[in-house]
Amino acid sequence: MDILITGFEPFGGDTVNPSWEVAQALHGRVIGAGMVRACRLPVSFRDAPQRLARALVEGQPELVIALGLASGRSEISIERVAVNLIDARIPDNTGERPQDQPVAASAPDAYFTTLPIKAMRDGLRAAGHPAGLSLTAGAFVCNQVFFELQHRLAGQGARSGFIHLPALPEQAARQNGSVPSMGLAAQVDAITLAIAIALGGVEVAALPDEGAPTS
């Protein structure tokens, strides 16, 4: 089984993005009956959907979890709904800042995740990871990717959704500790468990490196 995990390149002046660090750390890992394949997405309204579409075609995944950074949040935030809206508060990495635009003009107003989100939240909490459900993935590239993911996989039977991650300690340090943070190892452990729960089990094994993650 192919498990696709996406993460984003750094943005907003940062030199690191926990979503990609976690995805990269999980690349090649065997979890349950599947192997994780990581894909790095650009923080670009124009290019991110195209890269996501290629990744979906390349592997025909049965489980897809897109990861993103939510600086200011203190827990693993499992998103419930993607909205058909782009309203950028800052420019993306190409300088574009679209506002009040649909992600897809002919698509529904919103899509719900198809992940077992309450089981994931409860399992993470039981293992000691701070986790919660979120009703907003924002209106930046994270939400755009979440919406595109659900739109492309609608009716195909694959489980898919989006999880926001807290900042890493080094990112918080650059802001004088004014934002909450979570260490990379803890984030990797949490997403590993979240994947296992989404697959219906918690069996985790490691594999030798199967090659570099796609970018």
| Secondary-structure element string | EHEEHEEEEHEHEHHE
Number of domains: 1
Q: What structural category arises from helix and sheet content?
A: alpha/beta
In which order are the strands of the major sheet placed?
Answer: 8-5-9-4-1-3-2-10
CATH superfamily: Peptidase C15, pyroglutamyl peptidase I-like
> What's the total helix number?
6
The global form is globular
Q: Give the name of the CATH architecture.
A: 3-Layer(aba) Sandwich
Based on CA atoms alone, the radius of gyration comes out at: 16 Å
Largest sheet: 8 strands, mixed
Catalytic activity: Release of an N-terminal pyroglutamyl group from a polypeptide, the second amino acid generally not being Pro
Keywords: Cytoplasm, Hydrolase, Protease, Thiol protease
GO molecular function, one term: pyroglutamyl-peptidase activity
Function: Removes 5-oxoproline from various penultimate amino acid residues except L-proline.
Describe the protein in words.
The chain is an alpha/beta fold and 215 residues long. The protein has a single domain, classed as 3-Layer(aba) Sandwich (Aminopeptidase), CATH 3.40.630. The strands form 2 sheets. Strands 8-5-9-4-1-3-2-10 form an 8-stranded mixed β-sheet, sandwiched between helices. β2 and β3 form a beta hairpin. The two termini are 21 Å apart.
Topology overview:
Elements: E1 2-8, H1 18-26, E2 30-31, E3 34-41, H2 48-59, E4 63-69, E5 76-79, E6 81-83, E7 110-112, H3 117-126, E8 131-134, H4 141-153, E9 159-165, H5 169-174, H6 184-199, E10 204-205
Parallel strand pairs: 1-3, 1-4, 4-9, 5-8
Antiparallel strand pairs: 2-3, 2-10, 5-9, 6-7
